[in-house]
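Lab notebook: predicted structure, single chain.

Context: the supervisor wants predicted structures on file for every construct in the current expression panel, including those that have not yet been purified. This is the next one on the list. No modifications to the sequence; it matches the entry in the shared construct table.
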Amino acid sequence: MVKLQILLARRLLPSLVALALSGTAPDASAGLRDRLGIGSRTGTADIPTCARPLGSLAVLEPEDRRDWWSGEQLPAPSRLIKAFVSRSRCFTLVDRGAGLELAHQERALGAAGQLRNRSNMGKGQMRAADYALIPDVVSRNSDAGGGRIGGVVSSLIGGRAGSLVGDLSLRRRTADVTLALTDLRSSEQVAVTEGNARRTDLGWAGQGTLWGAGGLGRLGLGGYTTTEMGKVITLAYLQAYRQLVSELGGLPADPVNAAAAQAVSLLKPGRLLADPQGSGAAVRTLEAGQLLYPTGARQGRMWEVDDEMGNRGWVSATLLQQAR
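Prediction complete. Output recorded below exactly as produced.
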């Protein structure tokens, strides 16, 4: 009887596996192929490039600090996104992590007189970050939509032969991620893009240069380029990054000068004048320490400013300092 059960298992198992796979392993999603520019089986999933940087960028970890990546034996997602940014040349990366801590240490050594003469290490040298990019995972599933066929086989075969295949599990790995880009001067969230991928998408993307020595494979990204779940997450982030780059046309070419001017305050009491020549009546009197907002218009030493009540007029630059 046992021999008969094993014989039935051998004959039925391939058909049952094929049937289960047909329901749980569809072809690569059309949305992923379209967003990655993969129109056929000869297509590739490559990192987009820009002709020039659009500003400086700091890549940060998710706000709630959920360490989901360690459970998948992956580095922090910021490491992967930094690789995308570096290869795309769409932004200039500034370090706000370990590199920044080392920069502070060097400046502390300089302030203590420990650095050599003319080391040229001090204040006013760091580049400001124009934007912050925060990667996050909406959901990831190492066993999404998995279908266990052991129960089907066991019910048909039963006995010890059924238990031989009773633990077979068919898994479909998926990942849904987001990228949020924030303007650090205005705090405006410039863009939020989404990406999603699943295990069956790997066959399409794998034909490009993404995983090879000329792509991410040489950047030491660990499980993002070597494990199945890591590659699925990488493809999802790549889809989100490509979409982000496609939406960057509205960003200013010079984010420093495009931003609103910094507020200023009065060093001592003064007057808000109606014109830069001071020939008209004063709009109002101003108190020491009062905040004013430059419009950008200047005539000689006179600056056009707005006060907090919406009044507009002119003030001598000799009375102003950067607000603290």
